[in-house]
Amino acid sequence: MKKVKPGNQGLIIWAIDPFQEVSVLQTRTAEAAENWAEKAGALIEPVFVLSADQSVATVLKRTRIRGLVPTRLIVKHDASTGDVVKSLLKYALKTKAQAIVVGTQNKSALDRFFLGSFTETLFHLSGIPVLAVGPGVKAVSKKGPILFPTDFSEKSEKAFEQVILVAQSYKTSLILHHCVQNPMTPLLQSGALLSAGGWMPEPDYLENEISKAQDLAKQWVSLAKRKGVNAQVLIEAPNGDVALAILAAAKKHKAQLIAMAAQRGPFSAALIGSTTRHVARQMSCPVLVYRKP
């Protein structure tokens, strides 16, 4: 594998698990890192944090990608998952990394409900974009739009501004995906909803919410257009899980990337669990997660 010295290019952190056997997942993660680096004109630095000094030479020998700078080893004794993630993030901030690329491996039945603790902790703590690749990613495509699920919140808008830059680098278009779903499920079953201080039939509520979303979407599409990125809008009112609707939309439109905003706060674990975690564990294309520091 050819290694290059860092110059004025940006840097992508490739978080390596030295204990993971070389696999298709590891290869796809490397390809996702390489794809980002090529589009952004950046270099890739493999980084691993260990509780003891162990080699990952086998990983690098079998993973042939271009644009690697020399491997960085961070040794951390008696480290918890949180300590390891914090050490990685500290180094990523120090080097002003554009993103952290990580593979997440399903290892047990519990992964139907939880991501690997490392990736989940990284999502929770990182103020740097995290590009996750799961075992469901069979190939890393260099074509297709970027799907951006959004609730049109302020946090999502900040993430959208960053995703526009990614779309510029990838030279591709964006799909703004919004799901209108009533959070008051018990009331939904009664056929009426509370809106603007009064009761409203369910169909009227959904129509009202879709109309508001369309107005907001037009503003976001205009923002992307001003920056030279084409964007289209997809608004749905799914009967089931929002995460499943996101995954279905990505598959239907052959998205090469799903970009999402995650929140941090008292309910961040629940938020990640309800949407981001579900999308990340079922992904068929890489998932890029933003969280406002």
What does this structure look like?
About 5% of the residues have low confidence. This protein is of the alpha/beta class and 293 residues long. Strands 3-2-1-4-5-12-11-6-7-10 form a ten-stranded mixed β-sheet, sandwiched between helices. The chain has a two-stranded antiparallel sheet with strand order 8-9. The chain is globular, with a radius of gyration of 20 Å.
List the helices and strands and how they pair.
Blueprint: E1 10-15, H1 24-40, E2 42-50, H2 57-62, E3 72-75, H3 81-94, E4 99-103, H4 117-125, E5 130-133, E6 146-149, H5 154-170, E7 174-179, H6 185-190, E8 192-195, E9 198-201, H7 202-226, E10 231-236, H8 242-252, E11 257-262, H9 268-282, E12 287-291
Parallel strand pairs: 1-2, 1-4, 2-3, 4-5, 6-7, 6-11, 7-10, 11-12
Antiparallel strand pairs: 5-12, 8-9
Give descriptors for this structure:
ten-stranded mixed sheet; two-stranded antiparallel ribbon; 9 helices; alpha/beta; 293 residues; globular
Nutshell version of this structure?
The chain is α/β, with parallel strands linked by helices. It has helices at residues 24-40, 57-62, 81-94, 117-125, 154-170, 185-190, 202-226, 242-252, 268-282; strands spanning 10-15, 42-50, 72-75, 99-103, 130-133, 146-149, 174-179, 192-195, 198-201, 231-236, 257-262, 287-291.
